[in-house]
Amino acid sequence: MFMLMIVDLGDAVADQLYVPFDPISLEMIYRGLYHFSVAYQKGITTDPVKYFAAPENQDLGILKQQRKPRVKLILAPFPEQQRGYHQFFSSVFSNPLDIGHTSLTCDECCLQWRASI
Known about the structure:
Elements (H helix, E strand, L loop, with lengths): L1 H16 L8 H16 L6 H6 L52 H11 L1
Protein backbone atom coordinates (compact mmCIF):
# COMPACT_ATOMS: atom_id res chain seq x y z
CA MET A 1 0.00 0.00 0.00
CA PHE A 2 2.85 2.35 0.85
CA MET A 3 4.50 1.71 -2.51
CA LEU A 4 1.27 2.63 -4.29
CA MET A 5 1.33 5.95 -2.48
CA ILE A 6 4.94 6.54 -3.60
CA VAL A 7 4.05 5.71 -7.24
CA ASP A 8 1.04 8.03 -7.10
CA LEU A 9 3.18 10.80 -5.62
CA GLY A 10 5.80 10.23 -8.35
CA ASP A 11 3.14 10.45 -11.03
CA ALA A 12 1.84 13.71 -9.59
CA VAL A 13 5.37 15.16 -9.47
CA ALA A 14 5.92 14.12 -13.10
CA ASP A 15 2.70 15.90 -14.08
CA GLN A 16 3.76 19.00 -12.15
CA LEU A 17 7.18 19.05 -13.88
CA TYR A 18 5.67 18.21 -17.32
CA VAL A 19 7.95 15.20 -17.79
CA PRO A 20 7.13 11.52 -18.43
CA PHE A 21 7.02 9.14 -15.48
CA ASP A 22 10.22 7.26 -16.45
CA PRO A 23 12.79 9.88 -15.34
CA ILE A 24 11.20 10.16 -11.88
CA SER A 25 13.15 8.28 -9.20
CA LEU A 26 10.75 6.65 -6.77
CA GLU A 27 13.60 5.84 -4.41
CA MET A 28 14.54 9.50 -4.17
CA ILE A 29 10.91 10.44 -3.54
CA TYR A 30 10.89 7.93 -0.69
CA ARG A 31 14.12 9.40 0.69
CA GLY A 32 12.83 12.94 0.16
CA LEU A 33 9.79 12.31 2.35
CA TYR A 34 12.03 12.88 5.38
CA HIS A 35 13.05 16.30 4.06
CA PHE A 36 9.41 17.09 3.31
CA SER A 37 8.37 16.11 6.85
CA VAL A 38 11.02 18.42 8.33
CA ALA A 39 9.86 21.28 6.10
CA TYR A 40 6.23 20.51 7.01
CA GLN A 41 7.01 20.63 10.76
CA LYS A 42 8.74 23.98 10.29
CA GLY A 43 5.69 25.30 8.43
CA ILE A 44 7.56 25.88 5.18
CA THR A 45 5.32 23.72 2.98
CA THR A 46 2.14 21.68 3.10
CA ASP A 47 2.01 20.07 -0.36
CA PRO A 48 4.53 17.28 -1.11
CA VAL A 49 4.00 17.51 -4.88
CA LYS A 50 4.88 21.21 -4.98
CA TYR A 51 7.77 20.60 -2.58
CA PHE A 52 9.36 17.93 -4.81
CA ALA A 53 8.71 19.93 -8.01
CA ALA A 54 10.14 23.19 -6.65
CA PRO A 55 13.36 24.34 -8.38
CA GLU A 56 15.12 24.91 -5.05
CA ASN A 57 14.61 21.23 -4.16
CA GLN A 58 16.08 19.73 -7.33
CA ASP A 59 19.13 18.68 -5.30
CA LEU A 60 16.98 15.89 -3.83
CA GLY A 61 17.51 13.97 -7.08
CA ILE A 62 13.87 13.39 -7.94
CA LEU A 63 14.73 13.50 -11.65
CA LYS A 64 17.15 10.81 -12.77
CA GLN A 65 20.39 11.94 -14.40
CA GLN A 66 20.65 11.67 -18.18
CA ARG A 67 23.12 8.98 -19.21
CA LYS A 68 25.77 9.69 -21.77
CA PRO A 69 25.36 7.80 -25.04
CA ARG A 70 27.49 4.71 -25.47
CA VAL A 71 30.59 5.24 -27.56
CA LYS A 72 32.06 2.37 -29.52
CA LEU A 73 35.66 1.83 -28.48
CA ILE A 74 38.12 1.46 -31.35
CA LEU A 75 41.01 -0.81 -30.37
CA ALA A 76 43.06 -0.38 -33.54
CA PRO A 77 46.45 1.28 -32.91
CA PHE A 78 45.97 3.76 -35.78
CA PRO A 79 42.24 3.80 -36.59
CA GLU A 80 42.55 6.58 -39.15
CA GLN A 81 44.90 4.41 -41.22
CA GLN A 82 42.82 1.23 -40.93
CA ARG A 83 41.28 0.27 -44.24
CA GLY A 84 40.07 -3.24 -43.63
CA TYR A 85 40.68 -6.78 -42.55
CA HIS A 86 43.64 -7.38 -44.91
CA GLN A 87 45.88 -4.88 -43.11
CA PHE A 88 46.00 -6.90 -39.92
CA PHE A 89 45.96 -10.46 -41.24
CA SER A 90 47.94 -11.92 -44.11
CA SER A 91 46.42 -14.07 -46.82
CA VAL A 92 48.12 -17.18 -45.38
CA PHE A 93 46.01 -16.93 -42.23
CA SER A 94 42.86 -15.51 -43.78
CA ASN A 95 41.01 -18.83 -43.48
CA PRO A 96 42.11 -20.74 -40.38
CA LEU A 97 40.01 -23.77 -41.37
CA ASP A 98 41.81 -24.15 -44.70
CA ILE A 99 43.57 -27.53 -44.58
CA GLY A 100 46.01 -26.65 -47.35
CA HIS A 101 48.51 -25.19 -44.86
CA THR A 102 48.52 -28.04 -42.37
CA SER A 103 51.54 -29.73 -43.92
CA LEU A 104 53.77 -26.66 -43.51
CA THR A 105 56.36 -26.54 -40.79
CA CYS A 106 56.60 -23.50 -38.60
CA ASP A 107 59.58 -22.11 -40.52
CA GLU A 108 57.91 -22.66 -43.90
CA CYS A 109 54.78 -20.99 -42.68
CA CYS A 110 56.73 -17.96 -41.43
CA LEU A 111 58.62 -17.69 -44.72
CA GLN A 112 55.37 -17.85 -46.68
CA TRP A 113 53.82 -15.25 -44.41
CA ARG A 114 56.77 -12.84 -44.84
CA ALA A 115 56.60 -13.27 -48.61
CA SER A 116 52.93 -12.35 -48.66
CA ILE A 117 53.49 -9.03 -46.87
